[in-house]
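idk why but the lab printer keeps eating my pages so im just putting this in chat instead. protein + adenosine-5'-triphosphate:
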Amino acid sequence: MTYLAKLGELTLKGSNLQEFENLLRKNTAKMLEGLKCNIVLRAGRLYIDCSDEAASKVEFVLNHLIGITGWAKASVCEKTIESINESVFNLAKKEAEKGCKTFKISARRSDKSFELNSYEICCEAAGKVESIMKVDVHNPDTTIYVEVREKCFVYVDSNTGCRGLPVGSSSKGLLLLSGGLDSPVAGYRMLRRGMKIECCYFHSYPYTSEEAKQKVVTLAQKLAYYGITTYLNIIPFTDVQMKIKEKAPEAWSTLMLRVCMMKVANILAGRCKAKCIVTGESLGQVASQTIENMSVTEHFAEFPLLRPLCGMDKEEIIKDSLFIDTYETSILPYEDCCVLFSPRHPVLRGSVEEAEKIYKELEVDALIYESYKKREIVKLTSSGEPVWKTV
Ligand code: ATP
Ligand code: MG
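predcted complex ->
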């Protein structure tokens, strides 16, 4: 069985194209670890040969492989026009059975020594198909692709890829991953820019339940399907949160919580060699996400703070979460720690000066370091089960 995937944005790269291609090949091999298959990357295409038993796993991997615009199961045939015609016709029959009434053929000949040019291949191959479907070059129900390369590939382009740049081409970011809808999507967006991610979740037991923690592990696992390997750091945050409740003005409690999260994130990012911190904030979504309050949080970050969802609305975020299959998990009803400690009237436009002053009065630095030290770590890979470690 052969699968063919089309490479995305990385083909626009110039002299370092090879580097991006090597990374994509390496990522594919890692995601398919343990399976017998042959992976070839040549001239803008990725080919995977595998046994029938491996097919479903290969398809799962192709659905999670960042760097390809689409993929298809391809028939491989001899480089003769007779074989091409036969393969095209067989595929056309299946498409007609699925209800397609019109078709178009798109041919590419990268082997210029082949006897016919692309246009001639299209005309030849279309001939017999016209007995079962009508040609429509503008708006066909199905397009059958023929590629004449070192071998000949015939396929219909049916599956969309994740696009983006291969994971690992843009250093690492530390993702603040909560159980909500937004932060997993933020992580996915950065993965698609080639960034590896390590995750960090703040857990306030018993105010947040074991189920809430498990939910975040599930979300991190779903991101690991794209990100190859990721670590989830679970930070016990109850003591810090209680201190905020005790000492900070009520209106400031959510914002101070964000500030304290940033303080831990600074330590973690430094330790795991992340080059930035990523959150799922979106401008104006909740009180803590006004530009003034985001500036307060940012002031305490010692790394660039990236917010890939900043300009997205909820509907767009939900669409992404459905695509990456985190939606169902995110909407499970376990409260997160921020909801439980939400002030009735949160500050909407906090100032950095005031935040500095309130933070100082909290005297929470030792507790913050303590929470970092007491973290649990879960290793997640694209193919295995989560592995728990204690520091
Ligand atoms: P999400 O849907 O990602 O939870 P949200 O809309 O609920 O986001 P907030 O609760 O204000 O927004 O959180 C903003 C961002 O702060 C989150 O997207 C996430 O990156 C980070 N964050 C919030 N709570 C936690 C937590 N318990 N652990 C880790 N990160 C968190
Ligand atoms: Mg949240």
